[in-house]
Amino acid sequence: MARILGVCNQKGGTGKTTTAINLSSFLGLAQENTLLIDMDPQGNATSGSGVTSEGKNSIYDVILGRVPIEESIYPTDWARLSIIPADISLTGGEIELVEKSHREALLRQELAKISDRYSYILIDAPPSLGLLTVNVLAAADALVIPLQCEYYALEGVSKLLHTIELVKARINPELEVEGVLLTMADFRTRLALQVIEEVRAYFKERAFNTIIPRNIKLAEAPSFGKPIYYYDGACVGAKAYQNLAEEIVHRKFDPDPGVTAPRPGPGVFQRDIKEA
Q: Is the pLDDT of residue 268 over 70?
């Protein structure tokens, strides 16, 4: 049975989708069959994985019972990684879900049909605490919570933790916090170091050892539809997400030897700056 991880934070701009894409790709590189589910109406995990949602069944079709979940899973170009895409139609999903019975558990019911095919299922939750996110919390075994290394890092997390406790009490008593992940850290600033200290003091053992640094390659990779390892496997962002995957699988690994990590030249953003 798959271990189901929700990547959640109702605050936007925390690196949630970047984490979902890159963590799932590294789990695939660890030779674990992995499924990424895009539950965000913006569909950034879909496009950032190099998949177009046009003409495809989406998670919206699945949770509304329009198509079988088996017909909504698509391969990616990346090792052992498949995806269920999302598109903007998911925006209306919460409204339509209100009329459904057992609406909080619809995603969990669907995942039970395919869970034995994968080692890991990762779900990119929307940046909200609405019904779509509640479905993620109800379906997940554990949560990865990205927090940006900034002054307001902990703002709103109490609301997420309260929602998690409500879901545990009423819907999913097995739900755990896999870990809190500090992202976008600029180690040159005193502020980032203070935030890291505060978060680790507050969450203690629930904070991952891995910290994701600010890295231009991580920012560029989604515009090429590639996880970071396949865009620049030697950059510090790639090394950080490999470390995170190793924390989760509890073992060191070398990426699948059949996959070569590229080292491109200056990225598109760097070229733009140089040419400006």
A: no
